[in-house]
Amino acid sequence: MAVIRDVMPAFELFQPANVEEALSLLNRYKSDAWVMAGGLDSFDWLKDRIKRPKVVVDLVGVKELEGVRASGDGLEIGAMTTLTDLVRHPLVREKFGMLLEAAEAAASPQIRNQGTIGGNVSQDTRCWYYRDGWECYRAGGNICYADTPTAMNREHAIFDADRCVAVNPSDTAPALIALDAKMVIRSTSGEQIVDAEHYFIGPGIDITRMTVLKPGDLLVAIRIPGTWAGSQFYFEKVRDRKVWDFPLVNVASVMKTSGGTIQDLRLALNGVAAHPVRLRAVEAAVRGKPRNEQTAEMAGLMAIEGAKPLRHNGYKLPLVRNLVKRAIRGVEGSWTS
Amino acid sequence: MPERTLVGQNYTTPDLVAKVTGKAKYAEDYRAEGMLFCKLLLSPMPHARVRRIDSSKALAMKGVVGVLTADDFPPVKPDQSGLKPEQALTNEPVYQGEPILAVAAVDEVTAADAIELIELDLEPLPFAVDPIESLRPEGANARLEGNAYVDRKVATLKWTAEDFREVAAGRLPFGKGADEWKVGDVDAGFKQADVVIDETVVIQSTGHQPLETRTAMAYWQNGKLYLHGSTQSVARTVASVAGWVGVEPSKVVIVSEYTGGGFGSKIPGAHSMAIPALLSKKTGRPVMMRISREEEHFIGRARAGMQARARLGMRKDGRITALDLYIVMDNGPYSAQGDARSSGSIASLAYQPMTMRFRSVAVLTNTPPRTSQRSPGGMQVNAILEPIITKAARKLGLDQVAVRHINAPAGKAPYGPPGQNGKQRYVTSAFVKEALDRGVELFGWDARKGRSGQRRGSKARGIGVAVSPYVGGSIGFDAIMTIRPDGRLYFQSGIGNLGTHSTIDVHRVAAELLGMPWEKCEVIWGDTSKHVPWSCSSAGSQTVHAMTRAAHAGAMDAKRKLQELAAHDLGGKPDDYDVSNERVHRKGNASGGLTFAQAAKRAIELGGKYDGHELPKDINPMTKTSATALAGLGLMGVAKDNYPRDGDTHSYVVGFAEVEVDVETGAYQILDYTAVADCGTVLHPHSLAGQIHGGSVLGMGHAIGQRWTYDQHYGRPLAKRFHHTKPPTILDVPVAMKWDAVNIPDPETPVGARGIGEPPVGAGYGAVLNALVDALGDDAFRRTPVTPDVIVAALDAGKWTHEALTAHV
Known about the structure:
The structure holds two protein chains of two kinds. Chain A contains twelve helices and twelve strands. By secondary structure, chain A is of the alpha+beta class. Chain A folds into two domains: 10-61, 2-Layer Sandwich (Uridine Diphospho-n-acetylenolpyruvylglucosamine Reductase, domain 2); 68-122 and 168-225 and 234-329, Uridine Diphospho-n-acetylenolpyruvylglucosamine Reductase, domain 3. In chain A, helix 11 runs antiparallel to helix 12 (316-329). The N and C termini of chain A lie far apart (59 Å). By secondary structure, chain B is an alpha+beta fold. Chain B has a domain at 302-473 and 647-797: Aldehyde oxidase/xanthine dehydrogenase, molybdopterin binding domain (Aldehyde Oxidoreductase, domain 4), CATH 3.30.365.10. The radius of gyration of chain B is 28 Å and the shape is globular. The mean pLDDT of chain B is 97. At the A-B interface, helix 12 of A face strand 1, helix 3, helix 9, strand 21 and strand 32 of B.
């Protein structure tokens, strides 16, 4: 069959009006159904005719999935809340400024107006071999094209590669992991709550999926506990362009200090593995240590232990080291003119 | 010299409201009764031969009307190079993404579904996407005929194993097969030098990617082809489309009122225009071909990347005593490109080296076809040499501006290869030193020098300056204008409307000469059925120079005819009369004589030369046809530009940039940018500012991130869409950029104005690269773009670490 890209084929479209209808459709069509939120990830796949679902379930009409609500001393964010609405919400700004920064670092204003938080955390990898329809492991084949001697893999993984070296591109995911967010997943058989850290999966668990969502599952909300509200946040994304660019690497941390000592923190990276990486060993090592350059240096070095660079992504080692260092001690110095 | 009432003044061009309100009609906005849509089948392989195409299942689909293949095109023979010229569809695809076949159907989804039913049997052929790899003793040839242009013919060129030991060491070898020229004794030049820098660098290939893709719609009426397309010249696209389609130029009408950018990729028009034209002929129905962004990546043309080595010698006063430059140019798969040749000429012009040797090899690759992209060759050589000049200056403790000043071209500066007489050609004029002086002031260079190379915490600052010349004008084109009985002045414009305003601007020269208020002028553009004169392509920054000369000649012809007509009717000699105040009148009596409206009426009555029934002998046949069609409408000014010119016209821009680099992440921001142009007399300040800043941003984009990427083993591109190829965004460039122009008339053209489209590109590019060198030191990068990964890896290792010669990374 000859290949043509960039022309969307016909498919059956459902636009349910509530979650119950959506779940019933997903249950009926199972793996033949494609869940569409803002469409930024979906339309690429559909227009390029690489993923060819029989049925698209478009959630645009499910209004109960939109909006940010106070929930105890934390927040509940509907999965269909756009990144723009998330960024503009006063409670997000007041309590979880880091999530605002992360969401605002994603894509471009136009894309954030359309893209949703649920879509941002559930999006597929951007590996350009896989997204261009190459028959790789992740696409059901038996090779990783991004891990050959001639492969172009500047953007690819330095951690936890298992056949596939793709990375998770989400900017909000590491922020949600650092904030200890809970993902609320529903299906016709009920509701489950999953820690953000465990929502994302690597190729070792399932090489064809990026999250725990299985056919029939729907991410309906993200709950952020009050635990880290107003603590010391750090988020940084390094990319080629200032806008409309996925991260080369991003880092998110939350920290509580007392008298210059780090009492507690959570630290996560993205753009380095097929799933966002929580740096548990670094967290354990710096807890109780003074928040200073020496601790930051140590954290940076620990963060890259076990990293395996590919031909074109060796720079991610110093980059991760420096970003983790900055997450611990902040950015030094600045110019005023 | 007339009083400057229009030239040098800002005004609103008549196409602007339509553009900003969305009313402007681009090729894609047209519809015709019964119109079909077509989609393309692109080659999945980088090089292959079509063994068999079975379209039967596609043609059997409901709604599919026709299929077009290379066999439907007029036959072509190999040219002098030995290669067959490119056609829009092919049976031997020479790059992945080259169109093989087109399907026309009632809608696009049907056409796309039909493409999937085509059975295509391809025989894979050898391929190469990296010029250096193709030059290896065992390297593959991109074409069956060879892999390089040697003495203008396609031949097989391989370097030795010894040469490739140099490649392994990260240095470009001076392999055989290069075109070569020399000025002076280069070895002696190096002996005079106090410092010599020798660097191997890689400059990326990039797609042109204008926002409007090369969408086209075509239909036939009474044996004539009507083509709505996107082009950099309305007048000049007639002949190219006629050639591609295989009909006489008189059978082609081009409609292109608005062009959403070209940057050199639509000169003139696009090969792919033949697809809807021939499909329409075959199906008997209008055909629309909308080109997607991915298709534009493949067929939309690209800039030739370069792998280069430069040795540069500098004396301790900053004078460049010797330049030895060797360039391997990625030529793409088709006709020989001029980028490398321009690189040699522009390098010799920009820096006036006391001695110079230039060598270049054009290597064929199985990557998208190349063509001129805004400052072709000039921009690349700015990127190759500017950082090297800055490093030499640093070693000698010299200021970047001082070094540009001492080497700057001035007056009738020589440049390029020596001619048959052993002498170099020379330019019409150059006021680069004046531009540098103005830029130093406007940018505040001296104050910023205190921050040069300084660090605070993780933030390093750097400043840079670059000098960028490019060709700025041609000669010998025509103008047609008519003063009609309604008292208005009508200009026919054959210039493409690709956003520079020159389509309109150049005619203000004529209005000014005739003393006609601009409100009473009409410019007719965008449609060759509206009788346009022979015009230059808006390419090579020719238009403002070439077409102000033509407008001047046309206006002088109209003026002379007004004077003669007045003398004929009112007595006396033509020279007793002057034109002003919308009248032709006796000198000193501006209210007497004839109004322009009366004169137009009389011109029609008198006929002959006055109203276009008799025409000058030296005008182009296209102008003659158009003028003949317009004859009898009023008093006609029609003339060819025969003004003398001594020298080759070039314009110059100097760019100044300051950057702030975060040395822990490699991320950086261009904080400020200032550019000063030497482009002769300023014609239209607002559009000049747009050109200077827009061109500079294209250069900045090449410095900071724009690129493409290939997997060399498969010969397939990976970066095909904007989020991969990364052209710069508004947030990547400084918020407020400054500009100025020295505004000194060029002495070799009557209006004094030269073109400006191209020179800013190298200024933006070079200034940012130099600022990065200033901030990061001499050893951070040897390739462009300079992305955060390159910087952070180099700073970590203490020297540049990227691969020295690999293309398309």
